[in-house]
Amino acid sequence: MAKPVIYTTFTCPFCKMAKAFFKEKGVEYEEKDVTHDEVLQQEMIKKSGQFAVPVIDLGGTIIVGFQKEKIEAALGGEK
């Protein structure tokens, strides 16, 4: 599976929870902070259809918010 991408903001508690979850599972991820980056904001909106964080891209599966069960299912039980 491709490395997950997490679109975040600095102050988002759910973003922090998602990153901690990936670290706990030993899953490397790429973080894209959209706080002050309009290009990344538009990229995130194009993928998710909304301006909410975190947006997690798991190889094309888009999950908005920290939804542990959906993330685990998208990971396919790998970790």
Architecture blueprint of SSEs:
Blueprint: E1 5-8, H1 13-25, E2 30-33, H2 38-48, E3 55-58, E4 61-64, H3 68-75
GO molecular function: electron transfer activity
Pfam family, one: Glutaredoxin
Domain Glutaredoxin: 5-63
Largest sheet: 4 strands, mixed
**What assembly state would you assign to the polypeptide chains in this entry?**
single chain
Query: Counting H and I runs of at least 4 residues, what is the number of helices?
Result: 3
Number of strands: 4
Q: Spell the H/E element sequence.
A: EHEHEEH
**Class derived from helix and strand content:** alpha+beta
Chain-averaged pLDDT: 93
Please state roughly what percent of the residues sit in beta strands, choosing from under 5%, 5-15%, 15-25%, 25-35%, 35-45% or over 45%. 15-25%
Q: Please mark out the parts with pLDDT under 50 across 5 or more consecutive residues, or reply none.
A: none
* CATH architecture descriptor text: 3-Layer(aba) Sandwich
What's the CATH topology name? Glutaredoxin
CATH class: Alpha Beta
How would you describe the shape?
Answer: globular
CATH superfamily annotation: Glutaredoxin
Helicity level, as a percent range? 40-55%
Order the strands across the largest sheet as they lie in space. Answer: 2-1-3-4
State Rg. Answer: 12 Å
Distance N to C terminus: 12 Å
